[in-house]
Write a structure and sequence with these properties.
Helices cover 13% and strands 53% of the residues. By secondary structure, it is mostly beta strands.
């Protein structure tokens, strides 16, 4: 299993979808990787935590995320090979509030115990 911790900026507002009686919030995070370079990560947050993401995450928000990662290889329309990095987020820090204060969200384990839900993977 590939475990990632990334820090970057949301490239778009999160989108909320419901699948098989579970919610998932999806968004992309741009991680600065060098001078004028950015690596984009497609992120998903499942269950009740998706509501927290929808309430606090906005385009441009700086976030720190931890979760399992997967590199996906695919064929583009023009026949060339492309790749994307996907992440199932298990822990995150909420974006800074006005005035610069940040707060940490409870870890996946704490949320699972409180809410009695399992991770979907």
């Amino acid at each position: 299993m590939l475990v990632l911790t990334i820090s970057g900026y949301l490239g778009r507002d999160p989108e909320l979808k419901t699948t098989n009686q579970s919610q998932v919030a999806s968004f992309s995070v741009g991680v600065p990787t060098g001078k004028d370079e950015t690596t984009w990560v497609d992120c998903s947050v499942w269950g009740k935590r998706a509501d927290t993401v929808m309430a606090y995450f906005r385009k441009g928000s700086k976030v720190t995320l931890t979760g399992s990662g997967k590199l996906c290889i695919y064929e583009k329309k023009d026949g060339t090979q492309g790749s994307s990095l996907e992440m199932n987020v298990t822990d995150f820090t909420l974006p800074a509030r006005e005035g610069g204060a940040t707060s940490a969200a409870p870890s996946l384990q704490a949320w699972s115990i409180i809410e009695g839900e399992e991770a979907p993977f």
